[in-house]
Amino acid sequence: MSWEEGATLKITTRLGRHKTDRQRQAVSFHSGRHAVTRVHLIERYGTAAAEVRCRLQTGRTHQIRVHMLHSGHALIGDPVYGGRRKLSEKELGADAAQVANTFPRQALHAATLGFIHPLTETRMRFDSPLPADMAGLKAALGG
Q: Which residue among 10, 18, 38, 90 is the one 20 to 30 A from 65 at the CA level?
């Protein structure tokens, strides 16, 4: 991991199948496929949570989830890579901790997807607004 201009964390690893759980991916230092994620802080919610923007240089299975876990910042609501992590009331306040700890899915949203069309070579871009449940999570956290 390294820091780039603009307070962006660049995470560069190799990703491959987890040694004991074949359904999961894991950071590997000897095998797997090259993966790069750039993480930029948008807003911090105390010391326990933050909104970040991830920009993928590569597109590996579960890349954001694995890289965020690897950097020590598992996603809220991620049962596979977030483990049993619970955010404390002391760090967030009782109401915010309750909302975050019971969030029913991964707090992950593809705001923008883009690629070059393989046949026409046209640059394609798709934007999606933040879903209501995630807007509610953000509001509960103080955003």
A: 90
